[in-house]
Design brief:
Belongs to the adenosylhomocysteinase family. InterPro entries: Adenosylhomocyst_ase-like_sf (IPR042172), Adenosylhomocysteinase-like (IPR000043), Ado_hCys_hydrolase_NAD-bd (IPR015878), NAD(P)-bd_dom_sf (IPR036291), S-Ado-L-homoCys_hydrolase_CS (IPR020082). This protein is of the alpha/beta class. It has helices at residues 10-22, 25-37, 53-64, 81-89, 102-113, 126-133, 149-160, 175-198, 214-225, 237-245, 253-256, 275-280, 299-305, 336-339, 346-365, 379-392, 402-407, and strands at 44-49, 68-73, 93-95, 119-122, 143-146, 168-170, 206-210, 229-233, 249-250, 262-265, 286-289, 306-313, 316-321, 326-330, 374-376. The chain has two domains: 7-177 and 345-392, Adenosylhomocysteinase-like (Rossmann fold); 184-339, Rossmann fold, CATH 3.40.50.720. The chain has 17 helices and 15 strands. The chain is globular and about 65 Å long.
Length: 415
Amino acid sequence: MYKVKDIKLSDSGRKQLEWAEKHMPVLMSIRQRFRSELPLRGTRISAVLHVTKETGALMLTLKAGGAEVKLAGSNPLSTQDDVAAFLASEGIGVFAWRGESLEDYYQNMVEITRDGADLIMDDGADLHSFMHEKSSEGGEVLGGTEETTTGVNRLKVMEEEGVLRYPIIAVNNAFTKYLFDNRIGTGQSTVDGILRATNVLLAGKTVVVAGYGWVGRGIATRMRGMGAKVIVTEVDPVRALEATMDGFDVMPMSKAARLGDLFVTATGNKGVIREEHLKNMKDGALLANSGHFDVEIDVAALRRIATKRETLRIGLEKYVLQDGKTLYLLAEGRLVNLGAAEGHPSEVMDMSFANQALAVEYLVKNKGKLEKKVYNVPPNIDNFVAATKLKTMGVEIDEMTMEQREYVKQWRYGT
């Protein structure tokens, strides 16, 4: 069973998958092994992920490993309808389409878990939360994975409160995930989404980046590379200090609101840009969000203080405030890199989804051996992904000599 916008779009989706897979050699090598070994045979996997061509490559890899796979979208604006159609035609139980309502979003979780699930793959932890709060199937799940910082934070709280019902692999915490996906991938795809929605010149503009985690620093770095003047806002003193010593101006949002031409939120928290900030912004300021949920910009407040609202183009809305000032909201305040563009480049998602595939295999192999807690990706998986990626890029590195291996294992030798 499936529910997509138009199954006739499948041929277009096939072409999108072909392009993605050409640029995902690590995942393709895992698929080749999965196809011969079938390590996931008989496993039911339910996933809530952004339904992109890269996600499609992961789903087909899991299927090649012998799994029964069902997929729902993790954001109302991130589903690529042609990809969803192609996956449905390939036997994946897809319940996703661009523009689905909040009710559809949660109903699709019901659909992909209706017959139970052995493994849960999630992007933001909404499906994990659903399995714990609203589904009777949570006790039967042998494990799950989580793709995002936001989701991992939620799951750690569940672990601390003693309510987590199955082990989780925090894929987000793999070095080969957050150093590249969160930082480089989000940095580039955020710029991509903003430019697709607006086609504005970034050079010379003052860009305010809220949050200096891995996502925020990636955005700030790439904005500076495009010639923008970048201001960072933070609540964490260590990250604020790091941003300062990386050469960025750092100040509270109350001050930055008056200076910015473009605002990009990347904190994972709510109410980062509030009504008082909106009222103090320049005429013509642009508002974008790269955090997982659409809570960082107070869109309800923006609508409340506006006298006129108009959609100008895909991913761009105009709001005229009571004082005549105009503000522009991108992608409805949702993830701008997916709501107004295609998300991360395939080359980056190659590593993230290689971790996902191997984490799922790890959970199956260790069934019944893991506690109900959040685990990091095992170092051997992280190192395998990095080494394989380097090999596909034609990059060679040194190996330690036997003497060096022995040296780093001892404590007696000093100066």
